[in-house]
Amino acid sequence: MKELKRQLINALLVVLTAAAVISAAINFQQQKLYHLPDDGVTWVDRTDAKGQPLVLALYIVPDSAADRAGVKQGDILTKINNFTIHNSLDASRVLARVGPWREAEYMVLRGEIELKAKVIVRERVTEASLYYLYVVGLAHLIIGLFVYFRRSRARHALHFYLLCLASFVLFTFHYTGKLNNFDKVIYWGNVVAGLLAPTIFLHFALGFPERRWWLRARWRTTLLYLPALVMSALYFGMASGIMRTAVPLGELRWLLDRVSMTILSGLYLAGAFVAWNAYRRAEDPIVRQQLKWLRNGALFGVLPFTLFNTIPYLMGSPAGFYMNLAVLTLLLIPASWAYAILRYRLMDVDVIFQQGFTYTLATFGVMGLFYMLVLAKGPIEEMNPSTVALLLMVATFIFQPLRNWIQEILDRYVFYKDRYDYRRTLVEFARELSSETDLDTMLMAVADRLRRTLYIKNVAFFLADEGSDVYGLTKYIGDDSRAPDDLDLSFLTSQPSGTIFFERTRMALDVVTRHLPQTVRSTVAKLDLTYYIPCQVRGKTIAYLGASRTTQGEFLASQDLELLETLSGYVGIAIENARLYRSLQLKVVQYERLKEFSENIVESLNVGIVAADLDDRVESWNSQMEALTGITRERATRCELRTLFPHDLIAELDAVRSEAGVHQLYKVPLRARAWSASLNGNNGSNGHNGNGATAVMVQPSERLLNVAIAPLVTKDGDQIGRLIIFDDVTERAELEQRLVQTDKLSSIGLLAAGVAHEVNTPLAVISTYAQMLTKQISGDDPKSKLLEKIAKQTFRASEIVNSLLNFSRTSKTEFEEVDLNRVVRETLSLIEHQLEKSGVRVEFEGADALGCVRGNFGKLQQVFLNLFLNARDAMDVGGALRVCTKELDSLARVEVTDSGRGINPEDLTRIYDPFFTTKGAKKGTGLGLAVTYGIVREHGGTIDVKSTVGEGTTFTVELPLVRKTVNA
């Protein structure tokens, strides 16, 4: 009788669930298709000073139909299309007759004035929050089905499912206003569920995890549902007309809705408080977690809804956008329950998927039959309630036989197939063991299948150490998950005569164990294994499979033992395969580490390394090569050398291909752009190669490389390719060139000093005698002009000698802090007239807050004066002189750029040589840049030049900044 009652309850719940889901789906469809006419006004019933009823505009939606027609808040509605309006329900009825998107004539009183308003009635737009409530309700239903299907007999399972089902109805039943029979069912379902769901939640909170002592009496439990029953009776009485009151129906409904909202929020918060109080007293950590999430779901889901929706609604605020947003938090209620169920096994639900799957199929079957009957009778929303009830009864009586039939089919052919033919299942499983390579996973799978199929209590595996015949306990799976320790397994030998059998593992006087040492007998007792089956591979025992009696304490049948012995062979093969695979994995790891170590060595070298095979295809390309060429490793690998390097270098490499030993190529000039453009096949005209891949382009700077070519051989001496090493010596070559230039200038300076001193004396004598002769000859004598020319050229020669002395002088000069911007500005002002006369436009960009340098103001002015005058002379027909100062790290940089004819590349290495000049006759001595170079070096700086013929020249002077003292 009890079982029959349970089956009837289950069948009824399934039918109710199917009916609720079907009704919610139809209601959702109706919400999208049917929209009530709406003028945007909240009409309420009021009375005037004389007690006469009137209909007042309490709230008007901005930009609504009534708002556009001029209706104002506080207006009194008297007529719509000549229909007299006595109460707010009359307004709704007349609007329903008018229909949406039609014009209605409103007569309203504003003060003592009667006004007429033409209102274009619109459709009531369904709020997005309403569709969101469908999601919340569906989440409740899914959680309830999940719990109930996993184990319907679990304590609190039925209670929890009723809570979820009531919540589903509450959030998914929303009447449309069509006022047909189906719409009435939806309305009453929403009203009743809105009162029952919070009450059921409070009841659930009071009974979880243990029912409170004062709740065990049925009459006390009934008191919990009394408010819901009273409110339901009030709703029904007012709607049916049994109960009458002077309050208008619209106002009465609003009042009842406020009370219902208060009950909903209040009971949910009360349930959260009960869960919080139980959480404080609970000692079990799992129970505490369950109560915490039960409390959090109700608190964080309902509290914001109460604050931002329920309370404003109670205070008379009409539903608006921000109030509707409060429903967003309601999803936290089922979400928190779902997390607690999955994480903390709420309600101690066991994993019984089979029963849930059976109920699911039976439910779908009943739903299909229900739909067939519905389609045969017509649309459900137009059906008579008695017809719907009859269809539900038919589905109820069909459900249980259908469920039993599905359960039998699934048990035999799906769920318990291994129990019907377990021998074939185990043999097939044994054949599949070879596919598992992880030893622990494979052993766990074997033990699990044996325990579930043969009902073995304990299973263990004893593996021999590699290279020895000593066995150890590797895996022990049983009711006591803790593996025994201090074991003496000497009775397990590498040459067994067959399966070792212990009839009574706990008895010390067993005939079989009597001759064994005490430690062995203690081990047998601890393990509690009856059978020790050897796992042999190629005549060698590599493991033992241990099995106990069944869970009922019975020995294994002969066919079961035979099956285990067959399975042991497969287990032995699987163990050996797993060990071989693990050994292979270790070797792979070692190989990868060795390869990574070798690659790290190659990557750490400060030279570019290329390894090519015998066909000159790149096999290795380190990061230094990427930096040198701008070609990535992925792009260069497997490419031929001729597609990566210029033709002249390839020719050099081909020339030494057949020769043995290491070959060196010194200071090979290469341009980075040529390296990258060779990949494009179009001389670098675009950034893509023939395959559509982008080739990395770098700045067109020439690099000097020392190239070493060595054969790549194996340990047996066979050549398998070539190793090419690229050493970038560009900076080294520049330093060598600067050193040679410095030594050359130093030698020239010493020579110039000696020559200057020797020449100064005869020049002084010539100048003196020329002046004396000039005084002795009258001014009109032709010889006087000759003597003046001699004196003039003597002075010029003296100036040249003095310049040589300045160039070669190494004496100390007084240094001080100098502002380079000031030096440049004053120097430009000195030659401003000359520059304007030559048509040269000056552009000066001085860095803000440029630091000072330590030097001699006059000498630095001489440096920039020489550079400015050279720039002027380089621009024959005028141009632009651009001077820029900037601060880089600890250096001050001055760039002097002209737009002149430029310097020929072959002259760049000679411009600092004394007396070297490219100017015409009588336009320079060739000492300006030589003196400039000496002054810059004296100040600890550097001077560099870049020039392009026909475009101009840029001189860059860098001087060290004065370091500021930092106060401690």
- Spatial extent as radius of gyration: 51 Å
Averaged pLDDT, please?
76
In DSSP terms (H or I, runs of 4 or more residues), the helix count works out at 29
DSSP helix fraction:
40-55%
Shape: flat
What is the β-strand count? 25
Straight-line distance between termini: 95 Å
Q: Characterize the main sheet.
A: 6 strands, antiparallel
- Please state roughly what percent of the residues sit in beta strands, choosing from under 5%, 5-15%, 15-25%, 25-35%, 35-45% or over 45%: 15-25%
Structure explained in plain terms:
- There is one protein chain.
- The chain is of the alpha+beta class and 968 residues long.
- 53% of the residues lie in helices and 16% in strands.
- It has 29 helices and 25 strands.
- The two termini are 95 Å apart.
- Residues 344-354, 416-420, 508-512 and 673-700 have low confidence and may be disordered.
Descriptors for this entry?
968 residues; alpha+beta; 6-stranded antiparallel sheet; 25 strands; 53% helix; flat
Short description:
With 968 residues, this protein is α+β, with helices and mostly antiparallel strands. The protein has 29 helices and 25 strands.
Secondary-structure map with pairings?
Layout: H1 2-33, E1 37-38, E2 41-47, E3 53-60, H2 65-69, E4 76-80, E5 83-84, H3 88-98, E6 103-110, E7 113-120, E8 122-123, H4 128-150, H5 157-172, H6 181-207, H7 218-224, H8 226-240, H9 249-281, H10 285-314, H11 321-325, H12 332-344, H13 353-377, H14 385-415, H15 417-420, H16 422-432, H17 439-453, E9 459-464, E10 471-477, E11 500-501, H18 518-527, E12 531-537, E13 540-547, H19 558-604, E14 608-613, E15 618-621, H20 623-629, H21 633-636, H22 647-655, E16 663-671, H23 672-680, E17 702-713, E18 719-728, H24 730-776, H25 782-808, E19 816-818, H26 820-830, H27 832-837, E20 840-845, E21 853-855, H28 857-874, E22 879-888, E23 891-898, H29 928-938, E24 942-948, E25 952-960
Parallel strand pairs: 20-22
Antiparallel strand pairs: 1-8, 2-3, 3-4, 4-5, 4-6, 6-7, 9-10, 9-13, 11-12, 12-13, 14-15, 14-18, 16-17, 17-18, 19-21, 22-23, 23-25, 24-25
Helix pairs in contact: 1-5, 1-13, 1-14, 4-5, 4-12, 4-13, 5-6, 6-8, 6-9, 8-9, 9-10, 10-12, 13-14, 16-17, 16-19, 17-19, 24-25, 25-29, 26-28, 28-29
